[in-house]
Amino acid sequence: MGDAEIWLVIGLTAVVTYLPRALGVALSGRIDPNGPVFQFVACIAYALLAGLIARMILFPVGPLQETALGNRLASAGLALAVFLMMRRSVMLGVLAGTAALIGLTVGGVQLF
Description:
This protein has four helices and no strands. By secondary structure, it is mainly α.
C-alpha cells in the first residue's frame, strides 16, 4: 500500500466517523424531544430494560444462578418497594435489593 492509499483510507474513515456526528448536530435543533418518535423510542428502551431484568431474575447466569428463585423475586420486590417509597431513588432501591439478596443467600434462607 502506498502513501496515497493510506491517506485515502484515513480520509474515508474520518468521513464515516464524523459525518453522522455532524448530521446529528445539524438536525438536533429541529427534533422535538416530546414528539411521538421519542416517546416510541423511550417505550422500546423501557421494554428492553424490563425484559433484561426479568431474564436476570428468572434465568440467571453465573453466581446468581446459585441463589433461590424466591430470594431473587423477594429481593426484586423489596428493591421496587423501596424505590417507590423513597421518592424514586434508584440508589436506595438497588442497595435495598442487593442487601436483601445477600442477607437471604448468606443466611441460608430459601423463601420458595
